[in-house]
């Protein structure tokens, strides 16, 4: 027991060194925590700085009244209730002036609604009814158009490969027609007709 008491109360050189080492470790830990806090604050300040720069670049567009029937880049309310309403929009010039993630951060922090997750930027057609900014999301249809356009383009390339082949050129000289699969060149007109057919079928 006496030895145990003496160990805790004797300030010899070895114990003092150990105490200094402990203090050094604690000080180092506090420095690391301070550096982490500083880095976190710097990141937050950077985010706010970028967001504010987007805001100042687009402030006039944000404040001006929007026009019925026009198209806008922006976000909608995410409560799942129809009709959907415009939340916040950004001008095309500002959209292309900044990086996409900076635009998304701006739309999130300057939204009239709190968003726990990053919003999606959509192409919106504005429909003003009783001073309410209702919107029709066009991004979905744009993706469908792009998907079908890629299919049409690939089919056109396939047809042109057939037409340029030496075998097809010889066949055309003899018979006045291209080989099978090379006579009809698909175009963009009517490429979305399948959706009209499905709509008519559903209505019937």
UniProtKB/TrEMBL annotation:
Residues 29-41 have a biased composition (Acidic residues). Residues 1-41 are annotated as: Disordered. Residues 11-24 have a biased composition (Basic and acidic residues). This is Uncharacterized protein. It comes from viral metagenome. The lineage of its organism: unclassified sequences, metagenomes, organismal metagenomes.
């Amino acid at each position: 027991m006496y030895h145990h008491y003496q160990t805790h109360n004797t300030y010899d050189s070895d114990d003092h060194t150990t105490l200094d080492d402990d203090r050094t470790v604690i000080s180092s830990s506090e420095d690391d925590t301070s550096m982490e806090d500083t880095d976190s604050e710097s990141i937050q300040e950077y985010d706010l700085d970028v967001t504010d720069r987007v805001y100042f670049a687009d402030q006039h567009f944000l404040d001006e009244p929007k026009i019925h029937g026009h198209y806008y880049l922006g976000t909608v309310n995410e409560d799942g209730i129809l009709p959907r309403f415009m939340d916040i929009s950004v001008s095309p010039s500002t959209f292309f002036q900044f990086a996409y993630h900076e635009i998304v951060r701006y739309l999130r922090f300057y939204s009239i609604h709190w968003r726990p997750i990053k919003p999606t930027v959509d192409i919106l057609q504005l429909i003003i009814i009783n001073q309410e900014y209702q919107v029709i999301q066009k991004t979905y249809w744009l993706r469908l158009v792009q998907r079908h356009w890629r299919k049409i383009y690939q089919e056109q390339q396939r047809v042109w490969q057939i037409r340029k082949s030496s075998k097809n050129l010889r066949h055309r000289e003899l018979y006045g027609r291209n080989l099978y699969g090379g006579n009809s060149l698909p175009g963009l007109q009517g490429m979305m007709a399948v959706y009209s057919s499905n709509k008519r079928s559903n209505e019937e």
